[in-house]
Amino acid sequence: MDQIKIGKFIAKCRKEKRLTQIQLAEALNITDRAVSKWENGKAMPDSSIMLELCGILGITVNDLLSGEVTEMKDYKEAYEKNLLELVKQKEESDKRWLRFEIYVGIICIVVFFAMTIIASLVAMEDWLRIVLILVGFFPFLVACPFMLRIEQVAGYYECAECHHRYVPTFNSVLWSAHMGRTRHMKCPECGKRSWQKKVISKD
Fold this sequence. Notes:
By secondary structure, the protein is of the alpha+beta class. It has helices at 3-16, 21-28, 32-39, 47-57, 61-66, 72-121, 126-153, 170-175, and strands at residues 156-158, 165-166, 178-179, 182-186, 193-199. The chain has a five-stranded antiparallel β-sheet with strand order 2-1-5-4-3, with no helix packed on it. α2 crosses α3 (32-39) and α6 runs antiparallel to α7 (126-153).
């Protein structure tokens, strides 16, 4: 998906509607800086406001993602291409988030063990040892909900029984037994509990 082309298309449509960046931003309840980023190809409109943006500009979502007004005869082909591109971008984003989760986990473990070793080997008051261990544990405590959130939304879990792939609730991820990225959860499709593996793609 060509963000530069999409950005120029948004700017062209906005000008045709005789709207300034500020007016468009106010209509969408966002900042004019966000509109500027779109038009410069530095960011894409959020999916939550994409329909509203298209309504204001008088275009379809397919036009927006294509960066041009799509002719009816090319509509289906452009739609499928844009859909595949969005799926690909989500999968790449999910992979990055899952790698980031690993890095955060490693950093937290290293900090905790470093503080614990220092507290064990260096001569100091007992209260200071406790403080060091707590300081070492604090990053993990802060990062844990964030890492669980990544586990929940990045990719999908596949039921071992019916092979349904889905995004579980945060509570399901929080309270389920797990081994790495395999969790024992109840499938919302078949209702059976099984060890479910993390997968990237929906199909």
